[in-house]
UniProtKB/TrEMBL annotation:
<dbReference type="Pfam" id="PF00011">
    <property type="entry name" value="HSP20"/>
</dbReference>
<keyword id="KW-0346">Stress response</keyword>
<dbReference type="InterPro" id="IPR002068">
    <property type="entry name" value="A-crystallin/Hsp20_dom"/>
</dbReference>
<dbReference type="InterPro" id="IPR037913">
    <property type="entry name" value="ACD_IbpA/B"/>
</dbReference>
<dbReference type="InterPro" id="IPR008978">
    <property type="entry name" value="HSP20-like_chaperone"/>
</dbReference>
<protein>
    <submittedName>
        <fullName>Hsp20 family protein</fullName>
    </submittedName>
</protein>
<feature type="domain" description="SHSP">
    <location>
        <begin position="29"/>
        <end position="145"/>
    </location>
</feature>
<comment type="similarity">
    <text>Belongs to the small heat shock protein (HSP20) family.</text>
</comment>
């Protein structure tokens, strides 16, 4: 496995240990399963959409959870229903996988999940980066002084 030298980043960025952790997590994610397939779209400057192909799953079979900066999408088919369907149906070819899955996405700071929708076998999750006023850049005039309330 090829490693990446991040030492130039440490010299020029403050807090790049977080960046290094993200690069490490991404390299580990490459080794995970590619099921189900998904797209990540940039809809506008601060709006994103994850679209995941979940053929064979209903809205009741899929759960979406956000904890800290991790978006987790889990698909679980009811085992009893699956066994019943398999016994009743006889496949000549089965190319549509309906196996259980769990897919995790690392969200950037201040990214909020807005909505989720399922249509035509595709799960759409819309997100937006909402930067608080305190974190937005502000112009400081030269010669100005901070006035503290006593």
């Amino acid at each position: 496995m090829r490693t990446i030298d991040l030492s130039p980043l440490y010299r020029s960025f403050i807090g790049s240990d977080h960046l290094a952790a993200l690069v490490d997590a991404a390299s580990r994610a490459d080794k995970q399963s590619t099921y189900p397939p998904y797209n990540i779209e940039l809809l506008a400057d601060d709006k994103y959409r994850v679209t995941m192909a979940v053929a064979g799953f209903s809205a009741d079979d899929v759960s979406i959870e956000v904890q800290e900066n991790t978006l987790t999408i889990t698909g679980k088919k009811n085992a009893e229903e699956n066994d019943k369907d398999e016994k009743e149906r006889k496949f000549l070819h089965k190319g549509i996988s309906e196996r259980n899955f769990e897919r995790k996405f690392q969200l950037g700071d201040h990214v909020k999940v807005l909505a989720a929708d399922m249509e035509n076998g595709l799960l759409h999750i819309d997100m937006e980066r909402v930067i608080p006023e305190a974190k937005k850049p502000r112009q400081i005039e030269i010669g100005s002084r901070l006035i503290e309330n006593s």
